[in-house]
TrEMBL record:
Pfam families: ADH_N (PF08240), ADH_zinc_N (PF00107). Gene3D superfamilies: Medium-chain alcohol dehydrogenases, catalytic domain (3.90.180.10), NAD(P)-binding Rossmann-like Domain (3.40.50.720). It comes from Aspergillus homomorphus (strain CBS 101889). It comes from the Eukaryota. SMART domains: PKS_ER. The lineage of its organism: Eukaryota, Fungi, Dikarya, Ascomycota, Pezizomycotina. InterPro entries: ADH-like_C, ADH-like_N, ER, GroES-like_sf, NAD(P)-bd_dom_sf, Zinc_ADH-like. Signal peptide: none annotated. This is Zinc-binding oxidoreductase. One of its GO terms (molecular function) is oxidoreductase activity. Residues 16-344 form the Enoyl reductase (ER) domain.
């Protein structure tokens, strides 16, 4: 049976500090006829989660926000009309609660957990059953909690527009969650992977995960041309997470008709004194530059099947935080001390 109260983390203000995260206890919400009560067991953090209290997130967020889109747990109660879940099922959340299939639209965009809607950094959460998926059978709750944002974004980047094919080349930037998942998905598909990093230690980890080539972007600021020389005609898919500081190099390495999936801005939202990327640069490169906001439930179900079929294990940082260490987890992510996904245990 669930507890009588629900301990939550709440962001009271967006004031450039993680001190604005506070704990709070609330009564358990009622479970509607099409809803499911989930005991959250683990939550993973994304750069987006840290950027919200730092007042850097480019989309609106509700006041008194329960943060974090990415949660995994076990079903403890179902409404009378729920068809696809039962008590004891292991589940993961859907980032955009109403993006079930097809193209993203403005209404579905406004159903992002941990931003427009309250998220998963709490002991229990009620979901509409359509906003959940069964967790992959080969993953623990800690591993499954990493899937809703980073993994699905990487999957969408590789398969959402021009599906990745064996023998093609993928470039991933850095060692954050999206990039690591893209590396794993690409290798499982028989692709060649070029990775960038600034750390020799992280370069070694990337090679251990299967990266065929690793470029240190601090030692080689013109890494885009270097990456291109490692291919025949250029890179087929670029997973672009850096923002303005890296797009120019991505345009240098991508092949004609290749795809640059713009996913994040971990390198900042300005690029110093360099000329900012221009829309006509896509014409010069003859490439597709595509912005991605996560993906649909349909895509997530396809991804779960692939994770099970290839026994893909998410890369979780060696430090897993306890529920009462949420502020420390946020700071750890913000300081970029992690390799792979930062996870908070809730149980």
């Amino acid at each position: 049976m669930p507890a009588e109260t629900n301990k939550q983390w709440v962001i009271r203000s967006f004031d450039n500090t993680f001190d604005c995260l506070e704990t709070h206890e609330a009564p358990l919400p009622p479970v509607g006829e099409n809803e499911v009560l989930v005991k959250i067991q683990a939550v993973s953090l994304n750069f987006r989660d840290a950027s919200i209290p730092m007042n850097m997130y480019p989309f609106p967020s509700k006041s008194d926000l329960i943060p974090c889109s990415d949660g995994a747990g076990v079903v403890v109660q179902t409404g009378p009309k729920v068809k696809h879940f039962r008590s004891g099922d292991q589940v993961a959340s859907l980032f955009l609660a109403d993006h079930l299939f097809g193209d993203l639209n403005a209404d579905a965009q406004k159903t992002g957990l941990g931003g427009f809607l309250d998220g998963c950094l709490q002991q229990y959460r009620v979901f509409n059953e359509l906003s959940l998926v069964h967790a992959p059978r080969n993953l623990t709750p800690i591993e499954a909690s990493t899937l809703p944002c980073a993994a699905l974004t990487a999957w969408n980047g590789l398969y959402g527009l021009k599906p990745l094919r064996p023998g093609q080349t993928v470039l991933v930037q850095g060692t954050g969650g999206v990039s690591i998942f893209a590396l794993q998905f690409a290798k499982a598909a028989g692709a060649t992977v070029i990775a960038t990093t600034s750390s020799p230690a992280k370069a070694q980890r990337l090679k251990e995960l299967g990266a065929d080539h690793v470029i240190n972007y601090r030692e080689d600021p013109n890494w885009g041309e270097t990456a291109r020389k490692l291919t025949r005609h250029g890179v087929d898919h670029v997973i672009e997470v850096g923002g303005p500081n890296t797009v120019q190099q991505s345009l240098k390495c991508v092949k004609m008709e290749g795809v640059i999936s713009v996913i994040g801005y971990v390198g900042g939202i300005t690029n110093g004194d360099e000329r900012p990327p221009q829309i006509l640069d896509t014409l010069t490169a003859a490439a597709i530059v595509r912005g991605i906001q996560i993906g649909s439930k349909e895509q997530m179900l396809e991804m779960v099947q692939a994770i099970e079929a290839s026994d893909i294990k998410p890369v979780v940082d060696q430090r897993v935080f306890e529920f009462d260490q949420a502020r420390e987890a946020y700071q750890y992510l913000w300081d970029q001390k992690h390799f792979g996904k930062v996870v908070i245990k809730v149980e």
